[in-house]
Write a structure and sequence with these properties.
The chain is mostly beta strands. It has a single domain, classed as Pectate Lyase C-like (3 Solenoid). It has a 20-stranded parallel β-sheet that branches. Strands 4-7-10-13-15-17-20-23-26-29 form a ten-stranded parallel β-sheet. The protein is elongated, with a radius of gyration of 22 Å.
Length: 301
């Protein structure tokens, strides 16, 4: 009986250890996808490590180097360890990271460098299933699209939060839109979107409510910086500069609300073909045309 009890106790601790390991998995450029994906025994790719991670667990990149694109199919945090350069390169017409995690799933993507090499579809695509996706401290570069389709840094039809992130050299910056009747929400904080063509920097489309703060959109060489097209776009303390069309634009029944923001060196600073509300504390100077359409001023509360 004593031996049986001791055996059961050992088995219990082994099983508990395995479960605990699966709450945090790891990848390394020297790892193997045949490994346990633990920190002492890391896998090589995020895709395999994630498959061995419990829902709401964490996958950590331990070493600098290149990792392949993958699908996030569960609630999880995907993160590069401090000081680690973890890069993903998308294949032609594909996403670097595609999120299909489940309707209530919370996903965090932190500290990754995503590259499209001119033919990638999206740095991060959130178009199937999730509760909320948080993109933090990432660099997204070179998603221009493939086969005539425009590529995007981030494209989402579900709730997202983006902070401390740079998006550059993409067909479009951040596009939030949901063609179903359900409203989706996005918050964008301390984000730089630059060198975009042919589309726009930050786009609030159908059924989207997007709030932007402390962000910059520059050099949309054939498009606009901030656009509310059928959606709602709230902008605070931001900059639109060197965009060929509009710095900030409301069109197609969209609504823009803007405060403490500068638009300069654009084709047109502020443009309104729908609803454009200003708190009167913005700076719109140095554009080819400073304003077009009716800008509705409201008082400070």
């Amino acid at each position: 009986m004593r031996r049986i009890g001791l055996g059961v106790l050992v088995s219990f601790f082994i099983a508990t250890s395995i479960i605990a390991q699966n709450n945090r998995t790891a990848v390394s450029i020297s790892g193997s996808d045949a490994a346990a994906c633990t920190v002492p025994d890391p896998c090589r790719t995020f895709a395999v490590a994630l498959s061995k991670t419990n829902a709401n667990g964490e996958v950590v990149a331990l070493t600098s180097g290149g990792y392949g694109p993958f699908i996030i199919d569960r609630a999880a945090t995907i993160v590069a360890a401090p000081g680690i350069y973890a890069a993903l390169v998308a294949t032609s017409g594909a996403d670097a990271i595609h999120v299909n995690a489940g309707a209530a799933a919370r996903v965090v993507i932190r500290g990754l460098h995503l590259y499209g090499l001119g033919t990638g579809n999206a740095g991060i695509s959130v178009t199937e299933s999730s509760g909320e996706v948080n993109v933090e401290n990432c660099v997204i570069d070179g998603f221009l699209g493939f086969g005539g389709a425009v590529g995007y840094g981030i494209i989402a039809s579900l709730n997202v939060r983006v902070s401390d992130t740079t998006i550059r050299h993409c067909g479009g910056g951040i596009k939030i839109e949901n063609v179903s009747p359900t409203f989706v929400r996005a918050t964008i904080n301390r984000v730089e979107v630059k060198d975009i063509a042919p589309n726009h920097g930050i786009w609030a489309g159908t059924n989207a409510n997007v709030t932007v703060r402390d962000s910059v959109v520059s050099n949309c060489s054939s498009g606009s910086g901030f656009v509310a097209n059928s959606g709602q776009l709230n902008i605070e303390n931001s900059l639109a500069t060197d965009n060929s069309q509009f710095g900030v634009d409301a069109e197609n029944n969209g609504t823009v609300r803007v405060s403490n923001t500068m638009a300069t060196h654009n084709g047109t600073g502020f443009g309104n073909f729908a609803t454009f509300i200003s708190w009167g504390n913005n700076k719109v100077q140095g554009n080819s045309t400073n304003t077009s359409g009716t800008i509705t001023l409201v008082s400070q509360d």
